[in-house]
Specification:
By secondary structure, the protein is α+β, with helices and mostly antiparallel strands. The protein contains 4 helices and 8 strands; from the N terminus they run ααββααββββββ. The chain has a 4-stranded antiparallel β-sheet with strand order 1-2-4-3.
Length: 190
């Protein structure tokens, strides 16, 4: 009888240890998720997003990606680009750079019925005639610092400090928000 009671006691203790370890793992996992969701916004994060922003600015406002072949009936050419192999690659690049609202806006630019880029069977097609290229650009490679003007766990506002073509300090403001466990730009900066 004592052996049975001792065996029952050992089993109860063993189940208690297993139950506690599962609960502890769950708590640790929740803490990890909180940490991921509240990663601090840094100057390096901003500068990386600015580099992506420069690529997007050129793709949408200065010079669309290269094309090949003849235009289809709507004026779209198949895009040839070493960076984007598919339309999904383009969407993913935009998603790691901007908010989902800005991504939707860019994919519908300049109009929903005739966007600059469209998806044809997973491939990128471009109609360069729907935009007027912009000549003005900023020398973004001369950004000297990022000055934060507001910083919370969900949003950071900042000024990029650079020099204009006359050598004067030039300030450009922007903001990033925390979306889907990453910092992304609220809008295109130019």
């Amino acid at each position: 009888m004592k052996r049975i009671l001792l065996l029952l006691l050992v089993l109860v203790m063993a189940f208690s240890v297993v139950a506690c370890s599962d609960e502890e793992a769950s708590v640790t996992k929740d803490i990890d998720n909180i940490t991921d969701a509240q990663e601090d916004c840094t100057e390096q994060t901003i500068l990386e997003l600015i580099n992506y922003n420069i690529d997007c600015y050129y793709m949408f406002y200065v010079s669309p990606v290269d094309t090949v072949g003849e235009a289809d009936k709507d004026g779209y050419y198949k895009a040839v680009d070493n960076f984007f192999e598919s339309y999904n690659d383009l969407k993913e690049f935009l998603a790691k750079t901007y908010t989902s609202e800005k991504c939707d806006e860019l994919l519908a630019y300049p109009s929903e019925d005739k966007p600059l880029y469209k998806n044809v069977d997973g491939e990128i097609y471009v109609n360069p005639d729907v935009i007027t290229p912009v000549d003005y650009t900023i020398a973004w490679d001369d950004v000297i610092t990022v000055e934060f003007t507001e910083k919370t766990k969900q949003k950071c506002s900042f000024d990029l400090v650079t020099y204009d073509f006359d050598g004067n300090k030039y300030y450009t403001n922007g903001s990033v928000v925390h979306q889907d466990k990453a910092w992304v730009l609220s809008d295109m900066i130019y």
